[in-house]
Amino acid sequence: VPWLKNSHNLNLSVRSSGTSNAGLFSQLGVGGVVQDLRFEQANITGINMNSLGTVAGYANGASISGVMVANGSVNITSSGSWAGGLVGYTEGGTLRDVWVSNNPITAISSGAGGVMGRSLMTASNVHNLGSDVRSNGDQVGGLFGQRWNGYSLSRSDASGNVTGNNAVGGL
Prior knowledge:
The protein is mostly beta strands. It has no helices and 22 strands. It has strands spanning 8-10, 13-17, 20-22, 25-28, 33-40, 43-47, 50-53, 56-70, 73-77, 83-84, 87-101, 105-107, 112-113, 116-119, 122-129, 133-135, 140-141, 144-147, 153-154, 157-158, 162-163, 168-169. Strands 1, 4, 5, 8, 11, 14, 15, 18, 19 and 20 form a ten-stranded parallel β-sheet that branches. It is globular.
């Protein structure tokens, strides 16, 4: 991945309890831009919370590109929904040139994805490379736990095991 040689490397540990939206950023708003970052061994844990991801818990109208998350984990324990390797929950925006590698995702309730727990973003060149995704609930996927129609997805793939109850898929 050529652009990674110019990226900024981050090692991150986040532990949050009883709230919503946690990661490097709690929230990314309209016009927010995250680009050219590499997270190595970032471990993100949420206890009794919703919307958890390495970059952000929640994103609305943001642009995320050139990001790799590798060799860490994202875990919601006790109760909570919407866990993703990159972002927990999104409403609009763009996602491009993203890799999540060997970074297991676990959510107790619904909505777990290798890249995003819930995605309403236009996405291209998005990859989950060997990150297992597990949930005791529904809406679990290799890339996205929940993905709505009307938002394009191109040149993207996922590998790794995906485990959940209902609405479980590889992408």
